[in-house]
Design brief:
By secondary structure, this protein is α/β, with parallel strands linked by helices. It has one domain: HAD superfamily/HAD-like (Rossmann fold), CATH 3.40.50.1000. The chain contains two helices and three strands. A three-stranded parallel β-sheet has the order 1-2-3, with no helix packed on it. The protein is globular.
Length: 92
């Protein structure tokens, strides 16, 4: 990992679901949103702000948010049951 972004450090108005930090990342790394995969677990905030911009999204179905069902715009592109599945999903 080259960099870590804690969204609250950029102000509460730039915290998720705001795409602010994600746009900063693509500018810094000189990549397109389609080149970035975001992995999260909370559909209430993790995917809604970046999915419309073309970021690839993966939801890990563990933890306190595992049973939450949300409308499609809040949901990740792919769901996995554990991080052990991540390599297969990314290579497939």
């Amino acid at each position: 990992m080259k960099h870590c972004y804690v969204t609250h450090r950029y102000g509460i108005h730039n915290a998720k679901p705001s795409p602010y930090c994600f746009m900063h990342i693509i500018e810094r790394e000189k990549v397109n949103p389609h080149d970035v995969v975001y992995i999260g677990d909370n559909p209430k905030k993790d995917f809604v702000g970046i999915k419309p911009l073309g970021f690839k999204t993966i939801r890990v179905m563990t933890g306190q948010h595992r049973s939450i069902e949300m409308p499609k715009e809040y949901e990740a592109d792919i769901r996995i049951e554990s991080l052990a599945q991540l390599e297969d999903v990314l290579s497939g």
